[in-house]
What does this fold into?
Amino acid sequence: MNIFDMTIHELHGALKGKQLSSLEATTALLKRIESVEPQIGSFITVTAEQALAAARSADQRIARGEGTPLTGIPLALKDIFLTEGVRTTCGSRILSNFIPPYSAASWEKLRDQGAVLLGKLNQDEFAMGSSNESSAYGITRNPWDTSRIPGGSSGGSAAAVAAGQAIATLGTDTGGSIRQPASHCGCVGLKPTYGRVSRYGVIAYASSLDQVGPLTRDVADCALMLEAVAGYDPKDSTSVDTPVPDYSAALTGGVKGLRIGLPKEYFIDGLDPDVQKAMTAAIDTFRRLGAEFVDISLPHTDYAVATYYLIATAEASSNLARYDGVRFGHRAQADNLLDMYTKSRSEGFGTEVKRRIMLGTYALSSGYYDAYYVKAQKVRTLIMNDFISAFTGVDVMLTPVAPTPAFKIGEKINDPLQMYLSDIFTIPVNLAGTCAMSLPAGFSAEGLPIGLQLIGKPFGEETILRAGYAFEQATEWHTRKATL
Ligand code: GLN
It folds into this structure.
């Protein structure tokens, strides 16, 4: 087996058993990055020197018998995570020269365990997008078919895992940005419950929706990564002070008697036939494993995309006000202060980001605030209530992640509305604030990965991990590799 194709738990076993060193593993990953990067474009920055140094000290730590499951494991981060001393761009030209003075809390936790940082991954600019085409640092290609998008906005995070360029990665999910790319690239991706993982040091897009989570090669790795990054952080006032379960221990017990809801609004006519087929097969598998299916309804689903695009853009317009060319980031030459602001922002932001700042500013402007922003907040509550009442009768929900497999590069970039609609099955989960996981559930006739989504109750990560693990044990989708 190629070192670069190993899972965290496999590599951990090899490091512990001294069959491999972290230095060897890190070197293998860096070589792989070099060889496939021209085809894929997952990385904005590769931190080779630092990675080798971190690998050496991880090896010493393992030799002292002080290793943990993540010690010496080569990982990579979406470029939205602040990394002290390492350039962090968030996919934007406006941050092309930004070197953060501190690190994101989630990365600090991984680093403290001795994880090795290979570099920073490509993404849609400020995490706004579903295709990775809005990055100022070039597109990322889907390792399964390089004429297609990897999904977004954590496209680099998913492509790197699928292409053997990192053992696992972290992404963020505001409206589907972990689950949709995971689905398109054949990885496991989990969006935790809002408040489960600290957002400290993660560049803010829409603060009431943003959440950090892992992209991995299997469910066991997903549990390991979540366990490592989850937990209360006094530096994030929205992080929740509830104990972190042993997620790896949840991966037993199967799904006998588990009640799985099928929301009728998610199994619609427009669904791609290959996606529909994969869902039907997955339902059969779960049934065979002893799960029970219940038809449910989330009646306000139709309003989710519109609600999301009011709330997310409103929050973004306010979060992105800080990029004014004064304190950090790109500064344009100008004769006076106002021109300097205008020019810096005009030059620094791309088209999609500008579109959203304008939409959000409009939704928040006096006279329109009640009609748009306040109304959207009310509809958000209705959507949340849909989930609360549906969850009184079921333990988890099963849905597709995206209506189609990965689309072609360029196919939707000039049609923002079509792009927005591709997130229809992931967005409601963020509005409701609960958790969900995408995992490999089949392939299209053209050989493109298809993911299924398991939605859990708030702080129900253990249940979706357990169900996902049972499904994974019964199928072989997660073992297939893209050929590069
Ligand atoms: N595609 C959605 C958007 O553009 C979701 C992005 C995300 O989750 N960061 O906003």
Summary: The mean pLDDT is 97. Residues 183 and 451 are 4 Å apart (CA to CA). Residues 3-248 form a domain with the Amidase signature (AS) enzymes fold (CATH 3.90.1300.10). The pocket of glutamine is lined by residues 127-130, 153, 173-177, 205, 312, 423 (CB under 6 Å).
